[in-house]
Specification:
The protein is an all-alpha fold. The protein contains 9 helices and no strands. It binds heme C (2 copies). One heme C binds next to α2, α3 and α4.
Length: about 200
Amino acid sequence: MCHPRIHLLLACFALLVSPASVIAAPAIVDTCAECHGADGMGRGLAMVPVIAGIPAAHIEQAIYAYVDGARRCAREPRMCETVAALSEIEVAEVAEYFAAQVRGSSHEEFDKVLAAEGEVLHKQHCSNCHLPPDHESVADAIGYPLHGQRSEYLRYAIEAYFAGDREALLEAMADQIRQLKAGDLGALVNYYSSYRSAD
Ligand code: HEC
Ligand code: HEC
């Protein structure tokens, strides 16, 4: 089973084949930059996800998930208000802009024992779709990188899918989330937080 919105994602994959060129920042990026930083790395705000280097098709899909309510902005309503006001062209422009930014790691703290448990869970349930940012096939992956994401945001996002507060757009992912136990969530977050990019 595939959510209707996923067609957008698959249709857009063709665009990802061309290498990222230098992209002039559209004016609307100034608004996003207040929280996400002009480089998409998040300015150190715990609840603001890193969006640098997420393939453009995924950024667009995430924005439309906020616009139509599949994702809610429980902690920061201004995020949802900002993207709801964008035209389709602006959505495409900001997606292309942030996709072209270099993705570093956010240097989160983590617990080694939990991270090792999380790695096993990741390989079992999530690694088919979510690759680390420096993986050679990351641009073709079905999901986008969770490794190096801000841990507080990631904890909130995984818990939201687990609790049914956020809709997984792919049934195949929802299926894997359903197989987790509550205690697994923290292990996964610690594993993704243990990632360090080469920067
Ligand atoms: C007031 C702060 C704020 C502003 C302004 C803002 N964002 Fe966000 N953004 C957030 C927060 C917080 C989240 C997490 C929301 C949630 O899921 O509850 C988020 C989530 C996202 C995500 C999802 C990332 C992921 O990992 O799935 C994308 C993409 C995004 N924002 C893009 C944008 C763009 C593009 C703009 C400008 C047009 C923008 N944001 C403006 C705070 C902000
Ligand atoms: C079949 C492919 C697939 C599998 C398996 C999968 N995911 Fe996903 N995941 C996706 C896609 C596609 C998205 C983006 C669309 C959405 O929001 O549902 C996503 C989004 C996410 C996000 C949101 C990221 C963000 O920055 O907001 C999190 C968190 C996540 N997945 C965690 C997991 C975890 C944990 C597992 C394993 C238990 C998993 N996923 C398994 C495809 C998958």
